[in-house]
Amino acid sequence: MKASVILPYYNHWDLTHARMMELYKYVPKDVEIVMVNDASTDKDCRKGAGWWQKRSGRQEIKYVENKQNLGFGGSHNVGAKVSTGDILCFLSNDVIVRTDFVSIIIDDLSNRPDSLLGGEIIYWPGGWNEFEFDGKKMVVPYCNGWLLACTREVWDNMGGFDVETYGKFDFEDIDLSMNALSLGYDLLSLNLPKHKLNHLSGVTIRGLNVDRMEITKENRKKFIKKWQPKFLEVYETLERMKDDGADNPR
Prior knowledge:
- The protein has a single domain (3-243), classed as Spore Coat Polysaccharide Biosynthesis Protein SpsA, Chain A.
- By secondary structure, the chain is an alpha/beta fold.
- The protein has helices spanning 13-26, 44-55, 71-82, 101-111, 152-158, 163-166, 172-182, 210-227, 231-243; strands at residues 3-9, 32-37, 60-65, 87-91, 95-97, 115-118, 121-122, 130-133, 136-139, 142-143, 147-151, 186-189, 197-199.
- The protein has a seven-stranded mixed beta sheet with strand order 3-2-1-4-11-6-12, with helices on both faces. Strands 5-13 form a two-stranded antiparallel ribbon.
- β8 (130-133) and β9 form a beta hairpin.
């Protein structure tokens, strides 16, 4: 199965260049890399991508430049659209790579194709992923957005990230995971030690500040409104998973 790594970025060329160096070093040569420049204002973000396309000589590198800033979900959707892989790997440019994670993803999804895979699954209550409807409380487990992967079929069935509801960023990974659960897909955690993929949290978009928290709160309200009709259905699915001993997704 062919895999595509989709790498969006907005400015911070130093981060993206470092990720490209790591992908060059660790990722097999038959993996397609899709660089999505999200309307960066830093000219190095365009020049640097051109440098990689001309000089890599290892992986196939595609470059897409958004005409306007689309944010996290929108840029991933663009990258998925132009990619050609059977397996799609969505990597944030603030994740330090120290191993060939793509081959592990290919193996995992070959064995369990009906899954949404994450570098990390948050299955404990974090505040933002706790909900209550009709007296029933549920913690929504979700694949943290810094690394996500699935087959193209699963991606197409999910319809990608819901940018119409959530805008440029925040809550889209929880929404995508809820969507996967509602369609009967499993949440699968990448079987790698944490030091092999090190996420530098909050580096790429404004950091974890007050303005960002307000966006998170608003998108949480949108999530509740969107998923309330299907909440009990997903709640019962997760309860069955607990009964089967699978409450902490692998």
